[in-house]
């Protein structure tokens, strides 16, 4: 009796039923953990990917339900993390993981990925996954892709990573591809070797397609991409650091261990003569952040090189690190919510007591009062080989920030990483500073040469956060494949598992088959999408059926594609052109914009159909929805409001002049009209759109 009462002989583990894919009323891991703690046992919860709902109890590690354990001992409780890709999936045989993924409860696609050397990467081995190992599937795209090594096919082999650049270039050129090489930051194992490519390793290529190989560089190699000759002699004594890297060396996707990501790369420049390297995705996007401005490493605004005689810009120092700052931040200041440039000739506006004033008297410009400097986006990049100890000892980082990371795991210096200035770590009054014509922007590296000449004290704001494994954004070096373009792989066990997974839906499918057949019979009499008139397409779309326009749409250069299905779900692959949703930058659900709705671009009915994401994608502060952001009692500036994706579908054969005018602004200088023999999509911003052109529209691919 006393044994059963657990007064001696240990404690009995609760008889909780472990959740499975088909469980409806699964017990939560938290419930089981609470029961264990009530017995005086210690609990360690570990999350595992599974087909059971998130938080469900999956069982005990190393013990069965009802087993007796020592009083006061630690019991490991397995908790479902939902569907995802387990760690260490890459490198296993695909046939060895089919059971694991069949039990995930989401669609799983096995795809052939080309490898060149099957002696090093055996055929049938998992070489890539989406999501990446250790990541869960998203609600917007609840499916898993598994890349399986295959030696047959045309394209860029997945196993070019880490190989000699010249060897890989020669192999690709021998197959008829046009190959170029650029320098990019890379992990220690890839320095001097192939560290990636565009299109990504594993991608399928068309005959004669252009390929860019990335050669990995460390701190010195990265600095060399900023070095340019100051005259025509080539004298090394006249070499100087320029504001921009000749290879956009820091391009790529950078992510923290917590899953926050920032993508740097090509973007639209502010002027034709400026580089277009900047923030593509992630980071703050409001006006103060200046995410629309190209990034530079120093004050090379109106000159070719960084200011000489100063070591305040990291690129000119000897730590190997460098900063990335918005070019725009060097050119002016804020007057209220308006940015006033002081580099543009003929300026007629100035700041008067914190408000913008217009004048015809040039002498008034410069007599600014009430202006402010504000924190913009700011990055510190640390390539492999950077001297972090020297950088920290220099006082570059705020002391409190260094103290905060003192007990955290140290940053992995075998991988390049960047630090993103966290405005949340600064008090409100630290995020802005007074402007005057003789002051320096304290949120940019201080230029001591200018300061000494003008009697200005160094008031630079120290960097927060300091480097640690938790604060670092590490460069992601996995391939971003266009999975839909890859051929299906035949994996032993995958088909059988798929059949088993589909059995549970078979009964429902059989019951619906007659209805589906009737629907198909009715649809067979309808014209095909290619035969539909604009009026018929519009009627179908307005009725909720987007099948007439469903398909894959790609930029002419193939760098980015949009896939639209019959239900209005749109996904993006390749280089990110525009975030599709606040929740998921690569997917959204769109619907046609009703005639007369506001806001609207008033697309002529004969030209195309405007689409927009859900109303809930309007975000302002903690609010959601157009009404909350624009029609409530609280004022939000445009910079504070994120908006749904917005695009226009242009009919095949639409009038070119009408198409040109839909952006309500002048076309680009070298404007080339889109090909009107095929339908296409043009993404729209909330203002300042350029006209649809051959280079910026997404054509329907056949």
Can you walk me through this structure?
The protein is an alpha+beta fold and 702 residues long. It has four domains: 11-80, 2-Layer Sandwich (Trypsin Inhibitor V, Chain A), CATH 3.30.10.20; 94-217, Trypsin Inhibitor V, Chain A (2-Layer Sandwich), CATH 3.30.10.20; 271-475, no CATH class; 527-700, no CATH class. Helix content is 15%, strand content 24%. The strands form eleven sheets. Strands 31-30-29-28-39-38-37-33-32 form a nine-stranded antiparallel β-sheet. Strands 16-15-14-27-25-24-18-17 form an eight-stranded antiparallel β-sheet, with no helix packed on it. It has a three-stranded mixed β-sheet with strand order 2-5-3, with helices on one face. The longest helix has 31 residues, at 494-524. It is globular and about 95 Å long. Mean pLDDT is 83; it is low at 269-274, 496-515 and 521-526.
Q: Strands, helices and their partners?
A:
Blueprint: E1 11-12, H1 29-38, E2 42-48, E3 57-60, E4 68-69, E5 74-80, H2 98-102, E6 108-114, E7 126-130, E8 144-150, H3 165-174, E9 178-185, E10 194-198, E11 210-217, H4 219-224, E12 227-229, E13 239-241, E14 252-255, E15 261-266, E16 277-281, E17 295-296, E18 322-326, E19 332-335, E20 338-341, E21 349-352, E22 355-358, E23 372-374, E24 379-382, H5 388-393, H6 399-404, E25 417-420, E26 432-434, H7 448-454, E27 473-475, H8 494-524, H9 534-542, E28 551-554, E29 560-564, E30 569-574, E31 587-589, E32 591-592, E33 608-612, E34 619-620, E35 623-624, H10 626-631, E36 641-642, E37 646-650, H11 656-661, E38 680-684, E39 698-700
Parallel strand pairs: 2-5, 6-8, 9-11
Antiparallel strand pairs: 1-4, 3-5, 7-8, 10-11, 12-13, 14-15, 14-27, 15-16, 17-18, 18-24, 19-20, 21-22, 23-26, 24-25, 25-27, 28-29, 28-39, 29-30, 30-31, 32-33, 33-37, 34-35, 34-36, 37-38, 38-39
């Amino acid at each position: 009796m006393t044994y059963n009462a657990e007064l001696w002989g240990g404690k009995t583990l609760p008889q909780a039923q472990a959740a499975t894919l088909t469980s409806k009323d699964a017990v939560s891991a938290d419930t089981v953990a609470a029961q264990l703690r009530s017995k005086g046992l210690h609990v360690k919860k570990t999350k595992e990917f599974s087909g059971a709902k998130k938080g469900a109890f999956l069982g005990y590690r190393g013990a069965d339900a009802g087993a007796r354990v020592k009083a006061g001992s630690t019991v490991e409780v397995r908790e479902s993390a939902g569907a995802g890709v387990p760690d260490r999936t890459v490198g296993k045989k695909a046939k060895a993981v089919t059971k694991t993924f069949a039990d995930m409860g989401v669609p799983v696609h096995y795809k052939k990925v080309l490898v060149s050397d099957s002696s090093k990467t055996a055929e049938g081995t998992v070489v890539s996954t989406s999501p990446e190992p250790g990541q869960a599937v998203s609600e917007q795209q609840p499916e898993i892709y598994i890349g399986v090594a295959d030696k047959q096919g045309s394209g860029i082999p997945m196993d070019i990573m880490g190989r000699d650049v010249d060897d890989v270039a020669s192999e690709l050129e021998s197959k008829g591809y046009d190959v170029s090489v650029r320098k990019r930051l890379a992990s220690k194992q890839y320095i001097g070797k192939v560290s990636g490519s565009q299109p990504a390793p594993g991608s399928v290529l068309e005959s004669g397609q252009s390929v860019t190989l990335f050669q990995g560089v460390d701190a010195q190699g990265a600095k060399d991409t900023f070095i340019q000759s100051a005259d025509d002699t080539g004298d090394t004594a006249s070499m100087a650091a320029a504001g921009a890297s000749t290879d956009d060396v820091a391009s790529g996707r950078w992510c923290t261990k917590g899953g926050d990501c920032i993508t740097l790369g090509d973007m639209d420049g502010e002027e034709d003569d400026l580089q277009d390297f900047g923030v593509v995705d992630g980071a703050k996007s409001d006006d103060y952040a200046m995410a629309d401005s190209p990034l530079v490493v120093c004050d090379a605004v109106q000159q070719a090189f960084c200011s000489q005689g100063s070591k305040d810009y990291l690129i000119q120092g000897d730590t190997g690190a460098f900063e990335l700052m918005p070019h725009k931040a060097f050119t002016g200041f804020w007057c209220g919510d308006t940015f006033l440039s002081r580099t543009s000739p003929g300026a007629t506006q100035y700041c008067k007591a914190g408000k913008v004033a217009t004048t015809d008297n040039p002498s008034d410009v410069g007599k600014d009062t009430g202006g402010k400097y504000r924190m913009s986006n700011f990055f510190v990049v640390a390539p492999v080989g950077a001297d972090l100890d020297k950088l920290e000892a220099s006082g570059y980082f705020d002391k409190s920030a260094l103290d905060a990371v003192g007990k955290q795991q140290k940053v992995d210096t075998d991988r390049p990483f960047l630090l993103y200035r966290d405005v949340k770590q600064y008090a409100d009054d630290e995020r802005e500073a007074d402007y005057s014509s003789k002051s320096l922007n304290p949120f940019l590296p201080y230029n001591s040469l200018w300061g000494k000449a003008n009697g200005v004290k160094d008031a630079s704001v120290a960097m927060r956060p300091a480097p640690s494994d938790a604060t670092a954004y590490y460069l992601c070096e996995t391939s971003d494949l266009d999975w839909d373009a890859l051929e299906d792989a035949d994996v032993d066990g995958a088909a059988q598992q798929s059949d088993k997974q589909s059995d549970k839906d078979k009964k429902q499918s059989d019951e619906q088959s007659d209805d589906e057949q009737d629907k198909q019979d009715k649809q067979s009499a309808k014209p095909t999408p290619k035969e539909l008139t604009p009026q018929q397409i519009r009627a179908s779309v307005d009725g909720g059926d987007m099948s007439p326009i469903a398909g894959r749409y790609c930029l002419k250069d193939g760098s980015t594609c949009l896939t639209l299905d019959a239900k209005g779900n749109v996904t993006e692959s390749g280089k990110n052109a525009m975030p599709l949703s606040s929740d998921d930058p690569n997917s959204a659900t769109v619907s046609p914009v009703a005639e007369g709705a506001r806001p609207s671009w008033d697309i002529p009915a004969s030209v195309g159909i405007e689409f927009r994401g859900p109303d809930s994608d309007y975000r302002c502060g903690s609010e959601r929805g157009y009404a909350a952001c624009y029609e409530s009692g609280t004022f939000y500036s445009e910079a504070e409001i994120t908006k749904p994706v917005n695009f226009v579908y242009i009919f095949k054969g639409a009038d070119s002049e009408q198409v040109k005018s839909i952006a309500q602004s002048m076309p680009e200088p070298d404007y080339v009209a889109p090909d009107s023999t095929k339908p296409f999509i043009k993404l729209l911003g909330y203002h300042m759109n350029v006209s649809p052109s051959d280079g910026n529209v997404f054509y329907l691919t056949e």
